[in-house]
Design brief:
Shape: elongated
Largest sheet: 4 strands, antiparallel
Strand order of the largest sheet: 1-2-3-4
Low-confidence stretches: 239-255, 268-280
Distance between the termini: 22 Å
Strand content: 15-25%
Number of strands: 9
Helix content: 40-55%
Structural class: alpha+beta
Radius of gyration: 26 Å
Mean pLDDT: 80
């Protein structure tokens, strides 16, 4: 091994690595291990802050008085507070659903099923709470003995609900970050996932099967010292299909549902919005070395290990 590889090897606890990665064979030598850096989850923290700010806005919007005086800033603030005070829970639900839709449609790293489900649940809690109050009020006229098990809803509940939602996403983000572990040996790259026992996986990639290796530090990653390394094999590991628009099937459904004068317009709209799918490097932490520290050093390490494995039998 080169001096560069030996430097990495001297920094790792081999016994601890073997305990955490039982799939590492006795013939392998652990050289590096790591996982996603905390800063690589910044987008999830930003989303949690956005949700908290929506809650705080509706909490303060009904609590504070409308500002007096002239000026564009006062006019805009007065309009926002009037909308919040007028729409109440319904306005909050609409704002949260718009945030959920934008986050899902934009296909960020926060657009997965877990985060979207959390956003939908957060959106509906005040509406369900308020609906139970209304059901209890209506039941009182009908002689029903139904009582709301929750306290009566009022605007002040936006603050604790926002804090709770913020803490929930922050906690799940920390668990999600720590559920991925990566290890590099002299023969394989190992990727492990264990998220709340619901999503567990482990796979090793032999160097002889690697067809492409790409380091992909973002602008923020360069500033904070983290980045992604994509390991692509001939079987398609490390790749994902990314849709650049609505699918052909979706456009066909639009055309079939269109009738009369709307048929031509819908056909044109569908034809314009249809875009091809493309295969890109996977950015899922379960399919690449996601958000690791010192990505360029690890990139060089893998390249050197790949060179040292040239001509050796393919590991299965």
């Amino acid at each position: 091994m080169s001096q560069f590889v030996e430097q990495f090897r001297s920094e790792i606890d081999a016994d601890s690595t073997r305990n955490d990665f039982p799939e590492i064979t006795d013939s392998e030598t652990p050289i590096w291990r790591g996982g996603p850096a905390a800063a690589s989850m910044a987008d999830k923290y930003i989303l949690a802050l956005a949700v908290l700010l929506v809650h705080v806005a509706f909490f303060l919007g009904e609590l504070l008085d409308t500002p007096e005086g002239e000026g564009q800033a006062n006019f805009l603030l007065s309009a926002i507070m009037w909308l919040i005070d007028t729409t109440g829970v319904l306005g909050f639900v609409i704002c949260m659903l718009l945030l959920t839709k934008f986050n899902h449609y934009a296909n960020f790293s926060t657009s997965g099923g877990w985060t979207t489900s959390w956003l939908l649940l957060t959106s509906c809690i005040p509406l369900v709470w308020k609906s139970i109050d209304i059901i209890e009020w209506i039941g009182g006229f009908a002689g029903s003995e139904f009582t709301n098990p929750l306290p009566a809803w009022n605007f002040s509940w936006f603050a604790p609900l926002g804090a709770l939602s913020f803490l929930v996403l922050i906690s799940f983000t920390l668990l999600y970050q720590r559920s991925f572990q990566y290890a590099i040996t002299d023969k394989r790259i190992h990727i492990r996932q264990s998220f709340l026992y619901f999503e567990t996986s482990a796979h090793g990639i032999s160097y002889q099967k690697v067809e492409n290796l790409k380091a992909d530090p973002t602008i923020l990653g360069r500033l904070l010292g983290y980045g992604n390394i994509h390991v692509v094999t001939g079987s398609g590991v490390g790749l994902q299909v990314e849709s650049l628009g609505i699918s052909t099937a979706a456009s066909t459904e639009i055309r079939e549902q269109s009738k009369g004068k709307r048929r031509a317009l819908s056909f044109l709209l569908g034809w314009i919005t249809v875009q091809r799918d493309r295969t890109v490097e996977a950015t899922d932490p379960a399919d690449c070395l996601y958000g690791i520290r010192r990505p360029m050093d690890v990139y060089r390490l893998i390249n050197e290990l790949m060179d040292s494995n040239v001509g050796l039998p393919v590991e299965k």
